[in-house]
UniProtKB/TrEMBL annotation:
Substrate binds at W65, Y158, K296, G329, R415. InterPro entries: Aminotrans_3, Aminotrans_3_PPA_site, BioA, PyrdxlP-dep_Trfase, PyrdxlP-dep_Trfase_major, PyrdxlP-dep_Trfase_small. Its cofactor is pyridoxal 5'-phosphate. Belongs to the class-III pyridoxal-phosphate-dependent aminotransferase family. BioA subfamily. CDD domains: OAT_like. The modification N6-(pyridoxal phosphate)lysine is found at K296. It comes from the Bacteria. GO terms for molecular function: adenosylmethionine-8-amino-7-oxononanoate transaminase activity; pyridoxal phosphate binding. Keywords: Aminotransferase, Biotin biosynthesis, Cytoplasm, Pyridoxal phosphate, S-adenosyl-L-methionine, Transferase. One of its GO terms (cellular component) is cytoplasm. This is Adenosylmethionine-8-amino-7-oxononanoate aminotransferase. It comes from Propioniferax innocua. Catalyzes the transfer of the alpha-amino group from S-adenosyl-L-methionine (SAM) to 7-keto-8-aminopelargonic acid (KAPA) to form 7,8-diaminopelargonic acid (DAPA). It is the only aminotransferase known to utilize SAM as an amino donor. Pathway: Cofactor biosynthesis; biotin biosynthesis; 7,8-diaminononanoate from 8-amino-7-oxononanoate (SAM route): step 1/1.
Length: 456
């Protein structure tokens, strides 16, 4: 349903004009403007205005890039930030501490493996990856191995847009191929073969998995004197392709790290807090990393914030090295508003009656049922679901403007990329809302396919 008023039309046109003239959006040319204005959000829903002032109520199928797990304007998060802002909005973390930071560290240590004993509170996911890479390098240097300054990872990965993070993203098919001269050269193994979770266990090509493991071990052996650590998105590669692989591959990486003295970094910024159907995706493999990066859902999407956890062994190595300190310190690290929001978000996630452990399985069932209808559509190569992630992969790159418009017309907000039309909805979405989301996605894909056939 759409509505329009004179004031809405004027506001929408003015905002979109100013946006086009001055604002730069992610992964776009300077004047590739937005096509909708967000007026407000409520639970899993957004109210959008188009250039003619028409109002569109659309379900946020992206969870605002996977972070808004509790929906928009959740009262517990709003209250936590408002109350904290009334007392202390920000203070430097150098030489000072405060209650929200200590409380958040305590909560994270309670909710993650016991081997992880130290917490560094960063201000974004990309920054947490930078911290993880730096502390891994510093720990190796402190152990007398400064020549170990490269990282081993797999193709298809995405870890952020900052310089260090870009160096461990896929250098060929990723988003950062233009910056090869700027980044440190790291070592890339093939990505593990695709897999699917089933009631009977994970389905994958065992011969392909064995071949992959052999190649990963070969690269580790060949470069063992250079490698400081292995960094990977456990089980699910996010922005690199929404690609699912078998937990056994993660166990191989853990074994290789143990054999060679590498640090295993788990980038769970997208996969953590239940998104894949486990609290941490590492749990699928029963693996504990040496360093853990968390973000996105950590704050429930109400503001930016991230965390890096590591073992005592790594912390002690750095503290005894030269310099005897982790050389990183963002201005807004451990920001009290972020810490308060994160504590409130963790409380909601951990709710035994209506937290992630009941919400995500319900969403998974809804996505499996609702997206199945896409399998027979023209141009669809694959449909896959893992936890709160649903993917329709096309045979050709998606016509982004056309598909987005078709989805909004059906009451759904999507932001496809490449060949992928995917959803990571807020956990608070009801079964009826997930059904609406799937129907809108499948309908939009069908609409675009029919339009393309008609124009052929």
């Amino acid at each position: 349903m759409t509505r329009r008023s004179v004031s809405d039309t004027t506001v929408a046109r003015d905002l979109l004009r100013l946006d086009r003239d001055h604002l730069w959006h992610p992964y776009t040319a300077a004047r590739d403007s937005a096509h909708h204005v967000v007026r407000d959000g409520d639970g899993p829903w957004l109210t959008l205005l188009d250039a003619d002032g028409r109002e569109h109520r659309a379900l946020d199928g992206m969870g605002s890039w996977w972070a808004m797990v509790h929906g928009h304007r959740h009262p517990a998060l709003v209250e936590a930030v408002t109350e904290q802002a009334s007392r202390l909005a920000h203070v430097m973390f150098g030489g000072l501490t405060h209650g929200p930071a200590v409380a958040l560290a305590e909560r994270l240590l309670e909710l993650t493996p016991a081997e992880l004993e130290h917490v560094f509170l960063a201000d974004s996911g990309s920054v947490s990856v930078e911290v993880a890479l730096k502390l891994t390098h510093q720990a190796q240097a402190a152990r007398g191995r400064p020549e170990r300054d490269r990282f081993l990872t797999v193709r298809g990965g995405y870890h952020g847009d900052t310089i260090g993070a870009m160096s461990v993203c896929d250098p060929v098919n990723g988003m950062h191929a233009a910056f090869g001269a700027m980044v440190h050269t790291n070592i890339f193994a093939p990505r593990p073969p695709a897999a699917r979770p089933t009631a009977a266990g994970w389905q994958t090509d065992d011969a392909a998995l064995e071949s992959w493991a052999h190649e990963f071990r070969r690269l580790a052996d060949q470069h063992h004197d250079e490698v400081a650590g292995v960094i990977v998105e456990p089980v699910l590669q996010g922005a690199g392709g929404m690609y699912v692989y078998a937990p056994e591959a993660l166990r191989v990486m853990r074994e290789v790290c143990d054999e060679h003295g590498f640090t295993l970094i788990a980038d769970e910024i997208a996969t953590g807090f239940g998104r894949t159907g486990r609290w941490l995706a590492c749990e699928w493999a029963e693996v504990v990393p040496d360093v853990l990066c968390l973000g996105k859902a950590l704050t429930g999407g109400i503001m930016t914030g991230a965390a890096v956890l590591c073992t005592r062994e790594i912390a002690d190595a750095i503290s005894s090295g030269t310099p005897p300190a982790l050389m990183h310190g963002p201005t807004f690290m451990a920001n009290p508003l972020f810490c308060a929001a994160a504590c409130a978000s963790l409380d909601l996630l951990a709710d035994p009656e209506n937290g992630w452990s009941t919400q995500v399985p319900t969403i998974e069932r809804g996505l499996q049922d609702g997206l199945d209808a896409a399998r027979g559509l023209p141009g669809v190569a694959d449909v896959r679901v893992l936890g709160g992630v649903g993917v329709v992969e096309m045979t050709e790159p998606v016509d982004l403007p056309r598909l987005t418009a078709a989805a909004v017309a059906r009451g759904v907000w999507l932001r496809p990329f490449g060949r992928l039309v995917y959803v990571m909805p807020p956990y608070v979405s009801t079964p009826a809302e997930i059904e609406h989301l799937c129907s809108g996605l499948v309908g939009a894909v069908a609409d675009v396919a029919h339009t393309q056939d008609a124009n052929a």
